[in-house]
Design brief:
By secondary structure, the protein is α/β, with parallel strands linked by helices. The chain has helices at about 30-45, 80-100, and strands at about 1-5, 15, 20-25, 25-30, 50-55, 60-65, 70-75, 105, 125. The chain has a five-stranded antiparallel β-sheet with strand order 2-3-7-6-5. Strands 1-8 form a two-stranded parallel ribbon. Strands 4-9 form a two-stranded parallel ribbon.
């Protein structure tokens, strides 16, 4: 879990074995407990999600995971080939199934967390974007 500042909403991300980001949540949460609950709910609902791979404006590839029509997770970066993007979303789903949820919350305004494929969170938990 991470936040841009101590009083900012939290987001979560899944790290691969090499400590690179495999994907991140599309929503932000007011506190760590709600964020953890959302991660556990996603883990339980992975079989009901749908993965979408699409081209970006920069002619690269990105993926999103949806549940009941809403985006709940997305790639943390863009891919040069469609096959690599498809492999990445498959690896994300596999990794998400058994991912441990750590208690720590990292506070940082590091640019590396500013995702090209996602930008700002799509919505806060419980909020509907129109």
């Amino acid at each position: 879990m991470f936040a841009w500042a101590a009083d900012a909403p939290l987001q979560w991300r899944l790290l691969a074995g090499n400590n690179r980001e495999a994907g991140r949540g599309a929503l932000s949460y007011e506190d760590a407990d709600r964020c953890r609950i959302a991660v556990r709910a996603l883990q339980a609902a992975l079989d009901q999600t749908q993965a979408t791979v699409r081209r970006t404006a920069s002619n690269l590839w990105t993926w999103q995971l949806t549940l009941n029509g809403g985006v709940i997770a997305a790639a943390g970066r863009e891919y040069d080939r469609m096959i690599r993007c498809e492999q990445a979303v498959e690896a994300f789903v596999r990794g998400m199934r058994a991912a441990p949820i750590h208690d720590a919350v990292i506070i940082s305004n590091s640019r590396r967390w500013a995702s090209r494929s996602m930008g700002e969170p799509i919505a806060r938990f419980g909020e509907v974007k129109q």
